Structures are given as structure tokens and as C-alpha cells.
Amino acid sequence: MDYPRIEINLSKLQHNVKTITDKCKENGIKVAGVTKVFCADKKLVKAYVDGGVSYLADSRLQNFQRLKDFSLPKILLRLPMISEAEEVVKYADASLNSEIETIRAISREAVKIGKKHEIILMVDLGDLREGYFYEDDLYKSAEEIKKLEGVELIGIGTNLTCYGGVIPTPENLGRLVEIKNNLEKKHDIKLKIISGGNSSSIPLLYDGTIPEGINNLRLGESLVLGRETAYGKNIEETFSDVFKLVIEAIEIKDKPSLPVGEIGKDAFGNVPVFEDKGIRKRMICAIGRQDLLPDDITPYDKEITVIGSSSDHLILDITNSKIKYEVGDKLEFGLKYGGILRGMTSEYVKKVYV
Ligand SMILES: *Cc1c(COP(=O)(O)O)cnc(C)c1O
Predict the structure, then answer these.
(1) CA-closest residue to ligand 1 atom 13
(2) Of 20, 33, 126, 145, which one is least surrounded by beta carbons within 10 A?
(3) From 18, 36, 116, 350, the catalytic residue
(4) CATH topology of domain 243-353
């Protein structure tokens, strides 16, 4: 079963990583390469390492099994579940945290196996996903962590443009640096990591306005897609086509654009709406919502439009294409972030490294 497949260009990926980590280095910033979007596939992780990332970071502990063979320090990105504290200590060197209860559990597990686990406390600067929203709560937690065994507070971080769509600015990231300074003074500690967010912080890096003091970024999308995520612009001298989806045509027929009969709910419980465009040439390809969503992909043939999909069928309108397609033809698509994430996760999609 060779299709559907995702072709991954490892040298283009490594080029992206090198270009962006070099730019970060110029600004005193180390990169944590985020591997969750490709389920920490070892060949891609190697491209990250060879490209120059300083840390490996993932949100799921299952993926850490595949990171084991790499010697770089590993950071758990998603706040740990208290129930996984034992595995957190076992597999990750550091984790992002915002609940003292969870940190206490991590401390207990770390003491049990004689390990030191590093804690990065998250600050919510307004995006309203994870992190301490009120500074005093953060200072209180920091004070307690100082007294706990088996854990060490090594830094603070923030995450923006994920839930609330808040864009990183010199002002909000400046506040992170300020909080770091306050924390160091208050508790007489030195923090080695000030993590200024994800791929949405890239524009500040390139226009030279990222506040001094930010010394870490956690990057996924920018490395794999050559794109920042604040405005969705391509990053200079990077590739946006590291990943390519190739799928096979299983039906090509002229059909009306309006279904025939009374309209009920579709396979996912929605009542579909259709526009009457007359008779169109339609193609079905062998991939479906179990693997990715119709919005996740962009046809290389610009005259093709994606109409929709069900669990295992992707329906395309090929009426305007200049190419005379036949059943069995292979069609190529670019992948957006969600497409890479879902496609790489689907065991029904073959991965091919080029
Ligand atoms: C996924 C994730 C990132 C990486 O985000 P990108 O936009 O892909 O760069 C960074 N930090 C955290 C906490 C994440 O969960």
C-alpha cells in the first residue's frame, strides 16, 4: 500500500532548521525544536538535531519514547497530568508547569528515582491558555519550588497566539523579562531559560524587536513549514514544501453539483449546503477525514477545487483543470499545519523520506 503517502524532504527540513536557528543564535536565542507535529518521527528529529536545535520538545509522553536515542535535553510542552508524574520524570528532563500540586507530585517521583527534574513556569500574558495570570501566584509557587527536593526552577515561559490569538509584541514579551527580573530578585535565584513563545514570535526576531533577555523559543510550524504564525507569512530563505501529500484517484465522473433527493444529515451530523453549478467533472481520491480534513490541503494543480470529504473519500472538482486525469493517477497536494499533524498521525498514510 503505497498511497496515500506523505513525502518528506529531509534536506529541506534541515535547511529550514539551520536558517532559523542561525537567526536565533544571532539574537542570543536557543531553539527548542517542537516534534509533536510529526509525532517525533526519528528521521525528522535527526534533521532538527543536525540543523542545530538545542532542545527537543513535545507535548505527548508517548513521543518521548522515540526521542530517547537523542542526547539533547527534552522538554515536555503540555502541562503534565498529575497522573503521569512518574513518566514525566522518567522521560523528560524539563517540563512547562503552572500548578504547584502537579509540581509537588513531580518532586516526589523525582526523589524516588534520584533524579532532578527542571521546571519552567508558564506565564499567561493574555492569550488565556495555560499559565499564571496573576504574578503573585507565580511568585508564591516559585518560593515553594525552591524548598522542594528533586525539582529545580530553571526558567519561565509564555505561550501566545494559540487560543486567544494574541500576537507577541515588545510590550507583552517585555513583561515576561520584567517578571523574570522580579523573580530573580525576590527569591535570590538565577533563571537560565526565558522562553518567549512559539512560531508567532518569529516576526519580532526578524524585525529586531524581540526584547533583550528572551533567550529561548519553542518552534514547530516555522521549522516544518517555513512560516511564522502571527501573520502567516513565509520566512525568507526557507522552504514551505518540506511535506507533500500524494493520493490516488479512484473515480472520475460527470455529476450534478446538487445531490438528488431529500437532504438529511451527512456522515458527521451536519446538514450540508450545496451550490448549483450544473454538471461538473468530479474526482474521488482515496483518503478521508480519518487521515486529514479537506481544509488541510492545497492542490498543486491550481485549477482543482476541494469540494469535501467523508471518512475515506476526498471529493474534488476537476472540471477546470487542463490535465486529462484518469483513474489511478497520483495527485500532489501541499499540506497546512493541521494536515501535517493529522496526516503524520494517521497510520493509514505512508511516510516516504526523500
Ligand atoms: C505546540 C507548541 C509550541 C510550538 O508551536 P508552533 O506554533 O508550532 O511553533 C510551542 N509551545 C507550546 C507550549 C506548544 O504546545
Answers:
(1) 77
(2) 126
(3) 36
(4) Lyase, Ornithine Decarboxylase; Chain A, domain 1 (2.40.37)
Query: SS3 breakdown of the chain: % helix, strand, coil, rounded to 5?
Result: 35, 25, 40
Q: How far is ligand 1, taken at its centre, from the CA of residue 335, in Å?
A: 18
pLDDT digits (tens, 9 = 90+) for 285-342: 999 999 999 999 999 999 999 999 999 999 999 999 999 999 999 999 999 999 999 9
Give the separation between CA 44 and CA 11, rounded to whole angstroms: 10
31-79 per-position pLDDT tens digit: 999 999 999 999 999 999 999 999 999 999 999 999 999 999 999 999 9
Question: Measuring from atom 5 of ligand 1, which residue has the nearest CA?
Answer: 198
Among candidate residues 182, 171, 163, 180, the one with its CA nearest the CA of residue 215: 180
pTM value is 0.96
Distance between Cα 319 and ligand 1 center (Å): 39
